[in-house]
Amino acid sequence: MIRRVSALLCAGLLVAGVAGCSSDSTPSGQDGKAAGPVTLTYGIWDANQQPAMQKIVDAFQVAHPDIRVSIQLTPSADYWTKLQTAAASGSAPDVFWMSSTRIGLYADQGQLLPLSDRPGFDSGKFAKALNDIYTLGGKQYGMPKDYDTIGLWYNKKLFDAAGVKYPDASWTWQDVIDASQKLTDPAKGVWGIASPSWTQENLYNTIHQAGGHVISADRKTSGLADPASVEGLRYALDFVTKYKTSPTAQQMTDTDPSQLFASGKVAMFTDGDWDTLTYKNAPGLVADVAPLPAGPKGRATVVNGLGNVIYAKTKHAAAAWEFVKFLGGREANEIQASTGTVIPAYEGLADTWVKSTPQFNLQIFVDELQNAVPYPVSKNTSAWSKDTQALLDKVWAGQQDLDSAAAQMAATMNAALAKE
Amino acid sequence: MATIEATPAAAPAAAGPRPRRSRAGGHPREWVWGYLMVLPLLAGLGVFYLWPIAQSVYFSFTEWGAFGGQRWVGTANYRDFLSDPELPKAAWNTLRYSLLVLLAVPLSVVLAALLNQVRDRHVALYRTLYFLPVVSMPAAVAMVWRWLYNGDYGLINYLLSLVGVDGPHWVSDERFTVYAMAVVGVWASLGYNMIIFSAGLKSIPRHYYEAAAIDGAGRVRQFFAVTLPLLSPSIFFVSVLSVIGGLQMFDTVLMMLGKSNPALAGSKTVAYLFYEDAFLDNRQGMASAVAVVLMAVLLLLTAVQFRLQKKWVHYE
Question: Quick check: B142 contacting A, CB < 8 Å?
């Protein structure tokens, strides 16, 4: 018995000792310039992009041998959950990916280090619209990383088999509806299009193509109950419920629509440029991408982009800034472009990205910037986007009619916006 | 002042001096040692259980900002939670799920009894097979089942189609989700239950069976007359744990259904509401209130089970 107790005590001391040691190993304090290498953590959410991010980290470490960077990949479904919990307990990654939907909350609550105060800060190589996403109260908190637009991906084999002309810039909504009906072949288990209740890839675009809007320009009121917005939603919903040329909400829950497209079960799918690598690597898939079709009020696609930010409570602020400065530089952006990973935010590199994957007409994603509308956000976007998404899911599952849901979405969103 | 004279302190003095005795009845050193021995355990219990519970109760009366910082709000969280329109459905789902998972108890009793008959060489193999789900990652388990349950390409619906049944979308249609999750719950708990039951079976002396056989009892009669009553303490233990586990059901909902599922709204459990409050909506105070209510319900149900055990559990 005595032996067991002393073993337990030893184990306890060991744990305490390790804890003591580890707390001594970070003497650098506020400035990473102190002796010894520092290790930064870099939080990202896309496994597709991890190889490119690792290449960038490797290049950075060559230039800065005293700073190590370790990438922390969290699947996008859990990224914000984990990040917010970590941030609340003071242990978020030193540098991490940020999106337009969350920057308001994080910057407003003092979780991010303002970058524009840092020595050598230069955002001159990024488009103003991208810098604006990360600028709050006159300070810039994020270094633009990339931008994304949406295109109409199509399966060439299925189009050929059904004798349908490939989509191009002249297509309208009606062309997509006609094509989806010709392409649907229940006997072969092929659908003409996949039209899920997803917002960025699908509904936010159709809303704007119909002349509607998600949020007012002053970010004070919801536009989701606007008749034009409802028309945009109905166009996307009709594929599922009226024409039955899209898999049902249940089917798209069981099997992700991008997976259905990659495996040749779906002929058309509107999706962002970030899935380029997925479709490039999908075995047996012969696909290409066209601009989104024009709606009653013309063409529109939402544009969004990611940024790199520094956690306000990082222990290595100076080293983190060195890394973010590198991420915002030409070399890092060239790696993102040449690997075909994403459209880099850095000016003049879009062409490198387009040429990285010649089998796809990636130029359309760059050209669509002319028709781009900003991705709808407010200070605390997630406060309303979760509830509106739940209602959209209900409509898609046939549990609620679109008109009542639209009114309800607008009311929920207005209530959330009033609290900001 | 008669009351003062009647105080207990005055009583021993009137009765005269008594020999001092320690509580353990022996030398005081003995109980000091006893407490010292359990101190590490008590310390762990305090740090990892009692203190967090106390904190949760405190936090349940507060409101939190997105990144911490609390404000006292009294019982507002409890009122909000108990009037949450999602609560009745979630409570009903939780209850249904817990009762369905209790089916694993009789099933694992029978399986454990059968396993007890198997020759020793194969016992290890069967035990491993049944125990595998317990040591597998819940997330991996959920992903595999999600694939099995796929409405269009899943193995289960393929097998059903062979006998002419058009299977539903098990995990994206709320009419079926609770049953789909219960099947996974039963399957996952069999191994753990069986380990406890086989230990219980091993402790039943062989001579009871010999006596029963001499009295002319067959296998089935022996099972009901000897095995079941003598196994009842284990059955009670497993039932209590199953109900606790069932009421805390969360991981299968999150992993197997996912966050953007049209069936999610109709399949939430109380523990899932807690997760939503704590980690999606960042209402930690509200989440603490949910946790406290859930703990109270669990304590109550466990107390009821302990009260009822006198009617059916036989201790030797």
Answer: no
Option in A111, A250, A393 nearest B173 (CB): A250
Determine, for residues A253 and B169 on separate chains, whether the beta-carbon distance falls below 8 Å: yes
Q: In whole angstroms, what is the distance from residue A294 CA to residue A297 CA?
A: 7
User: ipTM > 0.85?
Assistant: no
Provide the shortest C-alpha distance from residue A9 to chain B (in Å): 9
- Least confident range from A109-113, A212-216, B11-15, B78-82: namely B11-15
pLDDT digits (tens, 9 = 90+) for B94-121: 999 999 999 999 999 999 988 887 777 7
Asked if A12 lies within 8 A of B40 by C-beta distance, the reply is yes
How long a stretch of residues is chain B? 316
Task: Search chain A and give the residue with CA nearest B264.
Answer: A390
DSSP states of B174-200: TTTHHHHHHHHHHHHHHHHHHHHHHHH
Q: What's the pTM value of the predicted model, to 2 decimals?
A: 0.82
Q: How far does CA A18 lie from the centroid of its chain? A: 39
Q: How far apart are CA A390 and CA A400, in angstroms?
A: 11
**pLDDT tens track for B36-63:** 999 999 999 999 999 999 999 999 999 9
What is residue B278's predicted lDDT score, i.e. its pLDDT?
87
CA distance A413 to chain B (A): 15
User: Which tokens is A358 given?
Assistant: 């010649």
DSSP string, B208-264: HHHHHHHTT--HHHHIIIIIHHHHHHHHHHHHHHHHHHHHT--HHIIIII-SS-TTH
CB-CB under 8 Å, A84 with B279: yes
Structure confidence at residue B23 (pLDDT): 52
C-alpha neighbours within 13 Å on the C-beta side of residue A174 = 2
